[in-house]
Amino acid sequence: MYGKVSFEEAYEIPRLADQSRDQAALYIAPKDLDRYMRQIKSITGERLEVSDAHGIGYTIVSLTVPGIQGICDPAQAEKHATEVNDYIAKEIKDHRDRLGAFAALSMHDPKQAAEELRRCVKLGFHGALLNDVQHAGPDGETYLFYDQPAYDEFWKVVVELDVPVYIHPAAPMGQYYQQHFANGVSLHLLGMITNGVFDRFPKLKIIVGHLGEHIPFDFWRINHWLEDVEKPLAAKAGDVMCKKTIYDYFKNNIYLTTSGHFCTQTLKYVADYVGPERLLFSVDYPYETIENGCGWWDGDAENIKKALGGEGAYKNVGRENAKKLFGLGKYHDCDA
């Protein structure tokens, strides 16, 4: 399939790329570390060459983990976010038919985050990617979650700008338990649901990767406990939890990508719950390879079409849903 759109795709600015080696060692096999270090720095070189060879027409790049969320000092975080956003805007400006970007944001101050997002959208960015919670405090052991009312002014601007926010896992830091990467985003997203963020902002659009960060595989149990146990207990105590079911939020506010989860059987399982209109192709480059991601999508195309419900749904997940979500204009092979 040509003209695919892929948008969980990481980069690092050159002066910090070598520092990312330690982070990368948490996720990259030793034999692949040199490949990763080469590809994380490539924006318009090898990245585009490999994309061309495997039918990706448009890529939205984002700052790699831990990114700004790992910077505990607010002033330093804001300064670094501005630096990387200016850097990537310059890198992609002559390749806008092939490349876009998500903003990197400091989430210490919701108002400042909203202002930086607004600036980046004016530069043509497609939204923002946040690497889970914002680390704060003198020792970095304060974790700022975006489901709290203090962040409503940020979400208000996100809705006003009509752009999505991608919430991505980040490596554990400090005393945060070591397996946090595997389930941190799912906890964060459930917090946004149960604390009413989507009720207050019904037009908010959130993206998560890896076919839903485990949540779809617990849909029944989460729904059962929320509807049959937690909501009645909250009502008895005079509290109000989320107004809708978890299914409603996933079908109206949340998008899921195939990043790093190249399995037709699990894609079908998730599609049966949320519908192919909530699913989008992505790779998770360079943590995963474009060869593997596209090799699955193109190589198992007939089975994927059956899993999703036909040729139309296959094209929608591969590119058309992304065109609509991001309001994309013409790009390389967009009509192929």
UniProtKB/TrEMBL annotation:
- Write down what this protein is called: Amidohydrolase-like protein 2
Q: Name one GO biological process term.
A: secondary metabolic process
What GO cellular-component annotations does this UniProt entry give? cytosol
Give any Pfam family that matches.
Amidohydro_2
Its family?
Answer: Belongs to the metallo-dependent hydrolases superfamily.
A single GO molecular-function term is: hydrolase activity
| Residues making up the signal peptide according to the UniProt record | none
Source organism per UniProt = Aureobasidium pullulans (Black yeast)
**Where does the chain cross the membrane?**
none
Domain Amidohydrolase-related positions: 39-328
- What are the record keywords, sorted? Decarboxylase, Lyase
